[in-house]
Amino acid sequence: MDNFTFYSPTKFAFGKGTESQAGSLVKEFGGSKVLLHFGGGSVVKSGLLDRVKNSLKDAGISFVELGGVQPNPRDDKVYEGIELCKKEGVDFILAVGGGSAIDSAKAIAMGVCHDGDFWDFYSGKAQAAKAVPVGTVLTIAAAGSEGSGDSVITKIDGMLKRGAGAECIRPKFSILNPELTQTLPAYQTACGITDIMAHVFERYFTNTKNVETTDRLCEAVLLSMINEAPKVIKNPNDYEARANIMWAGMVAHNNIVGVGRSQDWNSHGIEHELSALYDCAHGAGLSVIMPNWMKFVMNHDIMRFCQMATRIWGCKMDFSNPEKTAMEGIEAFRTFLTSIGMPSTITELGGKESDIPTLVKTFGLPEGGKTGGFVQLSSEDVAAIYKMAL
User: Which residues are bridge partners to 74 per DSSP?
Assistant: First the structure.
């Protein structure tokens, strides 16, 4: 196990009706003028936004609103939010929604405190050390942004989807009410479950040896998803299953399952180009990419894939042919994703083979460059994975 420092100070208010605590929590963390940041539709129609507003009013906290966040959040909304916060003297940002609203809020929070372009943080030109405090009211279990110091934004010019990370954007508090996820369509729920599982797999496939504790934590989250996912697809109002999935989404990405080990993240990087180009759900793109990435790299450490197959998917170990066991595990993962309504090919997302050069180009590796923590991939490798996924 590698040396590590783990610090995860977010305060979580979990359970039914917890959105009523929004005002008191903002006040607890020093907020007096709030930017309410959200997408639109569902949080308005469900009455959630009004409940949050009433909670802020009851706490004597003023607020301004900025809705319209899109899935795969765009930089134009971030620029709008930065300008609004500076104009209104905002000292706290409250995201109401899923990962898109939260990631956009985090980008705004960094941008307000930065003299240059907020995109500097996403292009690797700068590292954020200061941000406006952020809180969240979560409406979908997926991205894990409610407990992480990460954010992903799409730059409209060139449709570049990039991430940034900093401790200063880890939410001060997050309100997690599983009831708020019960109205989600089955497809959106399945996309979230896929994203959760992908966050774990990015950490599970590691070159670090002797990480049994975090291996077992990873496996526990994945087994929970395998157990709970069919329940909510069959019955969207299964509160207990929703609760387990919602907490797993946070656990999967606040890095408790990733400490002390190297991580990969190539599947996420490769997928980002799909959701940028086709505007598909992130989870749907991961469903297409992750099993093909696994097939492409499995011979790098065949026994780790056998461990996945036997511990997570219940495959029988074939010691005379470990490659067979590894492939059975990968196919079990693909079959599970298909069973909850996820796509398995780029074609299902609306893509075609002629798009691959564009996808590889926007992936952005310099000539001769490689990326990844488990297996280093070249541009040619990335192209091969896209081709496998067609």
Answer: 154
